[in-house]
Specification:
The radius of gyration is 14 Å and the shape is globular. It has 2 helices and 10 strands. With 133 residues, it is an alpha+beta fold.
Length: 133
């Protein structure tokens, strides 16, 4: 699993292949499928190894953790502050954030909607979000 995530990280950092570039461009063109108050999630892919979501956030993501999942987030648009463990980080378009399994995390958006690609491994079925507030 760690090897898979490391390869994903290297893939995101390396010069993109045509297919990867097309995927990112397609994700950038996505729009929410319905009106939403704060968070809208659209599943793009899922199998036993991982799930990929496009997520729009208007205000914040409450503090939570995943007991059995790690998560890699690629910021497609927007900016904000991400709490990762006990530290806060400024994040913006183009940033890649790795969130290890069991690590508390949250996001506060600044100035407009944030849009991210979220890759969760293994497959995320909506049952592993433990809110901390």
């Amino acid at each position: 699993m760690k090897k898979l995530l490391f390869l994903l990280f290297l893939t995101l950092c390396a010069a993109p292949t045509r297919a990867q570039s097309d995927l990112v461009q397609a994700a950038k063109r996505l729009s929410p499928t319905e009106a939403f108050d704060n968070i809208h999630v659209q599943k793009l892919h899922s199998d036993a190894q991982a799930s990929v979501f496009c997520i729009w956030i208007k205000e914040k993501v409450r503090p939570h953790k995943h007991a059995v999942h790690s998560e890699t987030v690629y910021v497609l648009q927007g900016k904000g502050t991400m709490r990762l463990g006990e530290k806060d980080y400024a994040v913006r378009k183009g940033d890649v954030i790795f969130i290890p399994q069991g690590t508390p995390h949250a996001v506060q958006v600044q100035g407009g909607t944030m849009k991210v690609l979220s890759v969760q491994a293994p497959e995320y079925k909506g049952e592993d979000r433990i809110f901390l507030d």
